[in-house]
Specification:
about 475 residues; alpha+beta; 11-stranded antiparallel β-sheet; 3-stranded mixed β-sheet; globular
Amino acid sequence: MLDQEISNLLAYGQNCLLLDELDCAQAARRICKLLKIADFMPMEAAEEVDTATNPNKLVAPLLQYATEQNIVGADGVAQLKAEIMDAIMLKPSEVNDLFADTYSVNKQKAFDFLYDYSVKSGYVDPDECAKNDRWEAKELKSKIEIIINVMPQAKTDKYPKCSLCRENEGFGARANMRTVTCDIAGEEWTYCYSRHQYFDKHGVLTNAEHTPMKGGLDTVQKLANAADFVGADGFVCSDSLVAYGGALNTEHEHFKTGFRTTPMLKQGFKTRLKSQEYPYLEMGTVDWYSTVIRFSHSNFEKITEFADKLISAWKSYSDERIANDGTKNFVSLVCRKLNGKYCFDVVLRSAGLKRPRMAADYEEIKADALSITDILGYFVLPNKLSEQLKTAQLYLDGTLPYDKETKIPLAKTVERLLKAQGGNTVSKLEAKLNIHDEVDLVCEKILASTAIDSTSLEQFLATLGIRQM
């Protein structure tokens, strides 16, 4: 019935997923069982299999058959796809062993192997990622990227414990998920790639135990160990431990990773700093919207000790411009291992800044607290904006009549842009460009609003014996 389609998928498994020929018969039986097919006759694979870089087109006929035959409903397609792909993949232990063997020779090739396998297995789906609205804000001071995430959001009640636990491997729509294990500060951690891919080869490094984020020296040292793990081609980052700092999950210890220099990490020093107690550190403030202290050194103990002191001092700092009762100041962290040196970026942030709050008008674009992803320059906006921005364009190009009394999405944004246009309509292309430019500027202003006043920063650093050079 689906002889050709199943044969194509088995051939793809051999070509791309290291499926052994001796395991093909068993894989075929597993697929037939999932599709409730009694018989299968192997056939020669179609030519298109040799050029396939992901399984979407090959698995699509099987998913269509399953829905037409009422084997699964629309909400079960993702899980069925994952289970079909799992049938033609290596076991988790085999992927883990291959990663470890490659890692012992070349770190970067090991991560490239795991990423390639995650794409070819369909766990990381380039077609789904491509659905996100994404563009570079080229006209701003720094080229931040705007991302409107339209990928389906999984519900947390569909996880064994939480979205980060290792038990997700093989669970439900994660049947085709593959993780690898590693040692971080003497603990077992797991690593896999994120389906969202906000960064290049965006991954998640997770404690194998369901243990909460701790903060302090423990987290700083683990972050440095994690930077050792990913190597010089990558970075490791951590959100703050407070919800108003953009943290989505503090119940399970984890870090985000990437293998591309982000907009923030591309920026050099704005000012150079010198520490009286740690004079050997190369240190300065980063030329970025947020307040970022960057410092580097090859000595693990000294640099993590300094990072912990800096973070602890900031958490308790207050002055006439920062109303902090010990709970308002927090940090976001990034660590890299560059030329044998640990390089930390500590982003100083506060919910106690005594200055006018960002205009409520901008909350139409982003009302949520900024995560480390946003701070790094990948500004992730809610999926509802995808359609709302398209509708807003229709008011700017005159397709829809604008009435101030009528409630519409992004009303303040549309009003600002119509005013800038002098009340006139513009072409469809210009309307789209104007909307993008407005979103760019709003995101830049929101990001800049996280910065600490320069006087406060100077006073804070002075408490640690740090001065500008």
